[in-house]
Design the sequence.
């Protein structure tokens, strides 16, 4: 039976990287609600216009409207078989609505958590540095540059530290993720549809585990 893969992972867990690999290598489309909302900012459809009005008023998009958007996007031909949802569902209400969509599309739901300890996530995020010239990414804990805070390929360029990656902001982002995601994990765990994959290994190792499940 074809599946709806609900991919779950904290900021810095490598969820986006893995979703892209699954799409490139297995041809399983990655449906990101963030990408859909960005596309809708310039689209000229009745649904896009509704979203644009809400966004310009600074309001939050409701669960019902988000569901409508996901339903419309996953009705396209590329989602006829298995597809990955990235960033949806985020709430208990959305999880219930997804059950309805799965029945409609005759698919089963499988949730996968890329599981990484919080202290590891903090180091991944607070340790990130990048080169403004070539875009090379380093990590002071796991992949430091050869010389302190300068790019290996552009030794005259000091590495930059993203504002979002400072410790206080990282703590807030991780706490928000924990708070929002726990009910979702409980929901799928209770129905035996949650699989945890160790996210501390190499990218290829994690990919192999995910590919087996997908």
Sequence:
């Amino acid at each position: 039976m074809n599946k709806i893969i609900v991919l779950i992972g904290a900021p810095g867990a490598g969820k986006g990287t893995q979703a892209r690999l699954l799409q490139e290598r297995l041809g399983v489309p990655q449906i990101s609600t963030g990408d859909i909302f960005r596309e809708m900012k310039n689209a000229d459809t009745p649904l896009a216009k509704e979203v644009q009005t809400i966004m310009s008023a600074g309001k939050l998009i409701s669960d019902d409207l988000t569901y409508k958007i996901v339903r419309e996007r996953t009705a396209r031909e590329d989602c006829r078989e298995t597809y990955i949802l990235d960033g949806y569902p985020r709430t208990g209400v959305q999880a219930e609505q997804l059950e309805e969509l799965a029945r409609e599309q005759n698919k089963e739901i499988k949730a996968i958590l890329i599981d990484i300890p919080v202290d590891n996530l903090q180091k991944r995020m607070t340790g990130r540095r990048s080169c403004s010239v070539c875009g090379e990414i380093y990590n002071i804990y796991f992949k430091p540059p050869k010389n302190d805070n300068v790019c290996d390929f552009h030794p005259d360029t000091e590495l930059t530290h993203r504002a979002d990656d400072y410790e206080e902001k990282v703590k807030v982002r991780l706490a928000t993720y924990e708070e929002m995601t726990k009910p979702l994990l409980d929901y799928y765990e209770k129905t035996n549809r949650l699989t945890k994959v160790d996210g501390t290994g190499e990218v290829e190792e994690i990919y192999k585990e995910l590919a087996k499940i997908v």
